[in-house]
Amino acid sequence: MNQENDECCPKFNLEKWDEKTLDWDNKQFIKESIPTLFHLPFPPMIGKKISKMWKMAEEVKATSDDKEDTLVLFCDPSAFRSELYLSVTGNVPGANNAVISGTFISKVFDDSYNAIPKLIKQMDKYLAGVGKKAKKYYVHYAYCPKCAKKFGHNYMIIFAEV
């Protein structure tokens, strides 16, 4: 990703994602998985996988021109595996291409990486307030640890499929 003042992550636009309803119809991603231990990933492995995915997408010009629109979603189908999805603009040869469809409600949180269980409960409460219930969750971390420190925030978007 672009290096701008030693930041690899674009400045996060909270208003763009907080409390929004999104309809995704075959939204394109490439997918990888990493092992976890009770939902805790091994940080060096995350960076390597995301770098690999980014390079593959960039080589075929399947990355968005607006880096703010690029999503890296995490979904934990089990306590021992996490799936990573990188949004792309087209098919990426040699990658595990995937699509995600459905209606999603997004909410932004600013908390530590390990606060996800607490934040899911807050998201469930928010969804109940708007008469919805989640089928599945995806989490997007707006900043890597280095950029979170630099910007002074650790924003994450929880996308609830409803």
Description:
- By secondary structure, the protein is α+β, with helices and mostly antiparallel strands.
- It has a single domain, classed as Multidrug-efflux Transporter 1 Regulator Bmrr, Chain A, CATH 3.20.80.10.
- Helix content is 26%, strand content 38%.
- The chain has four helices and seven strands.
- The chain has helices at residues 14-17, 43-59, 116-129, 145-151, and strands spanning 20-37, 40-41, 72-78, 81-87, 96-110, 136-141, 155-161.
- Strands 1-4-3-6-7-5 form a six-stranded antiparallel beta barrel.
- Mean pLDDT is 90; it is low at 1-5.
Give the strand order of the largest sheet, numbering strands 1, 2, ... along the chain: 1-4-3-6-7-5
> Per CATH, what is the topology?
Multidrug-efflux Transporter 1 Regulator Bmrr, Chain A
Main pleated-sheet profile: 6 strands, antiparallel, barrel
What's the rounded overall pLDDT mean? 90
DSSP summary, beta strand count: 7
Number of alpha- plus pi-helical segments: 4
Q: Find the CATH superfamily.
A: Regulatory factor, effector binding domain
Strand content: 35-45%
Structural class: alpha+beta
Reading the helices and strands in chain order gives: HEEHEEEHEHE
Shape: globular
N- and C-termini, Cα separation: 31 Å
Please report the first level of CATH classification, the CATH class.
Answer: Alpha Beta
What would you report as the Rg, rounded to the nearest angstrom?
A: 15 Å
Q: Give the number of domains.
A: 1
The multimeric state of the shown protein is single chain
